[in-house]
Design brief:
Layout: H1 2-10, H2 12-49, H3 54-79, H4 84-101, H5 103-118, E1 126-129, E2 132-139, E3 143-147, E4 153-157, H6 158-162, E5 166-168, E6 174-176, E7 179-183, H7 189-202, E8 213-219, E9 224-229, E10 231-233, H8 237-254
Antiparallel strand pairs: 1-2, 1-5, 2-3, 3-4, 6-10, 7-9, 8-9
Helix pairs in contact: 2-3, 4-5, 7-8
Length: 272
């Protein structure tokens, strides 16, 4: 015990010096974390103020946070006497090893950068990516967050998004509804066509330009098929789609025009 006390007394100045350095390093680390968060929030607010896509603002703010926080760590290490140049070299070698081990994460990061640069979609768009569909809420460094119509959250890796086809349902202002309506072979085709047109004419959400198309498309096995293709604003797509399906069925029933359905005739032969 006396030996320890003697050592402390002999090195009190050195202990005090390093103690102060460690305290300062901790202060730098704690303040740096707050500064990184502040810079990140400031960046995101700046993007919002300039009405830039929220997904872009979120992505860039994440990058800013990572850069400032890494600089804070280097400053704190430098304060306690660690040579940051050597540390950076060691960090680079370690980064190479970690990079090889985390190829998937790096691929997600690179894909996130491509999403921001190419902008195949933006926040608020309804898209289908990687076999999943939903509204884009935000784009992070490694993943993109989607929200489905039934309010489920899907976290999709960016690499999976960029390696597959991307369907953006919201980019264009208008969309075409494609319906196939079959009527029986005994139906009056002229009358059936007029009934279908009357339903479209009564739907106020259907656009006048481009004009809708109602034509016979196929003489199928058990029905004569009409294609019904009206154009609507993208926001009106599903409400109009559901309304047309219901109203077409009602109108054809009122006109005594049958819609064929699969049937099977069974013939029994009695053997003596």
């Amino acid at each position: 015990m006396d030996t320890i006390l003697n050592w402390i007394n002999e090195n009190s100045g050195l202990i005090l010096h390093y103690g102060i350095q460690v305290v300062i390093a901790l202060v730098i680390f704690l303040l740096g974390g707050r500064v990184a968060k502040f810079c990140s929030n400031l960046t995101e607010k700046a993007f919002d103020k300039k009405k830039v896509d929220k997904a872009v603002g979120s992505f860039v703010s994440s990058i800013v946070y990572a850069i400032v926080f890494m600089a804070t760590i280097l400053m704190a290490l430098s304060q306690i006497g660690i040579e940051t140049t050597s540390f950076i070299a060691i960090l680079g070698a370690a980064g190479l090893a970690v990079g090889l081990a985390l190829q998937g994460s790096l691929s997600n990061f690179a894909s996130g950068v491509l999403i921001i640069l190419l902008r195949p979609f933006k926040s608020g768009d309804y898209v289908e990516v990687g076999g999943k569909a939903g509204t884009v809420k935000k784009i992070e460094i490694f993943s993109t967050e989607l929200r489905t119509p039934d309010n489920k959250v899907i976290i999709m890796p960016n690499s999976k998004i960029m390696s597959d086809s991307i369907i953006n349902y919201s980019r264009e202002a208008t969309r075409r509804i494609d319906l196939v309506i079959g009527v029986g072979y005994d139906a009056d085709l002229r009358k059936a066509k007029e009934v279908l047109k009357s339903v479209l004419d009564q739907e106020s959400r259907i656009l006048k330009d481009p004009a809708y198309n109602v034509s016979v498309s196929e003489l199928a096995d058990s029905s004569v098929n009409f294609i019904v293709r009206p154009w609507v604003n993208s926001d009106d797509y599903w409400p109009t789609y559901w309304s047309l399906i219901e109203n077409i069925k009602i109108a054809l029933d009122d006109a005594d025009i049958t819609i064929p359905f699969p049937q099977m005739d069974v013939h029994l032969h009695k053997q003596d």
